[in-house]
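Sample entry (430 residues):
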Amino acid sequence: MRATDTIFALSSGAPPAAIALMRISGPDSVNAAEALTGSVPKARRASLRILRDASGEELDRALVLVFPGPDSATGEDLVELHLHGGRAVVRAVAAALAALPGLRPAEAGEFTRRAFLNGRMDLNEAEGLADLLAAETEWQRRAAGAMMGGAFSRRIEQWRQEVLVLSALTEAELDFSDEGDVEAQNNDIISIGCMRLHDAIRDLVQAPGVEKLRDGLRVVLGGPPNSGKSTLLNALVARDAAIVSDIAGTTRDVIEVPVSIGGIAFLFLDTAGLRDETDDRIEAIGIERTRAAMESADIILWLGEEGTGPDHPQLVEIAAKADDPTQPRKGSGAVTVSAKTEEGMAQLIATLTEKAKGLLPPPDQFAINSRQRDLLAQAALALGQAAEADDWLITAEHLRLARIALDALTGRAHTEDLLDTLFGRFCVGK
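Predicted structure, serialized as tokens:
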């Protein structure tokens, strides 16, 4: 992969479609467009052109747009060809571009990578874009949009500037404190400033992360055999995801079913029924997996006898089979449901949604990923140590480490491996 190459790729969805968007980016992008069209329109003005290959054969009639760099999506000359969205058309235009000297198909995420390398976006915005493209729920869309919009990066830059000011004050103490030119109150300013930044960053580190938004909250249905777990699961996901029978031990393994409810991603897990003893080795393995699933659950729907469920902060007592008068009832804190008659299902969904809001980043708060959390934690640790240091050299070093961590967040400091991992998440046309 060379940044000096001119690349092209289909950036719209897979054909057939009404329109297919072919993007060309790099130093030879305008020349490539001219080779196909004979002439290109003025910058940022769409114009209809006939596209022809090297032999003069007409390929398509398309709208052509030219975006001169650096004021383009990639920060370099970029051309868009708005083609008719048939497979044959797309293949023919791609083949004509590939035949031109200096052009090659783009690799996954290469357009976005060039935007980063050319200063059109930073790493946080690129990660937000990747999450936005993968978003399937409303909460995912909101969180990704906030990250892609640059609000998080602006917050990081603000903190970075404050660290730079504290570093300057520390260097002044190191250089001039013996000469009486520096006020003694700088000691308190630096210490208080470091601790204030430490607390602000720590609060963000401890907040719910984007992983639960992306992967879904893990909701485990637990209880003894034949307590109605599988039936309730099928009702929650509105399909027959689990086998239902009157035979105890029908569910042998953990069944995972992702679903979106109220714009929130959930991962429901139906589990093997819990009982103390079984002669069935397969069922015993299933029970062990059930216990492991409940340990990692965000929410547990307990269909067993009231008060017998695991000790979990988000356990919901479920009185299942409300349509069966022989079933034992539970206290007022339980949700009474019937998967057959749908009694109580609306209340259960409302309960799940309400609990989810307390486990997910709120819409007005940044949803950070593991990379961002680790770097923020490093910055917070360094700032806390800087506030407590009694030697200006040590204070200066901790402030330097905090600044390095903040620089890594936006991509001021990065490694090729990191970039390969990040931009490899994108499709070829992005």
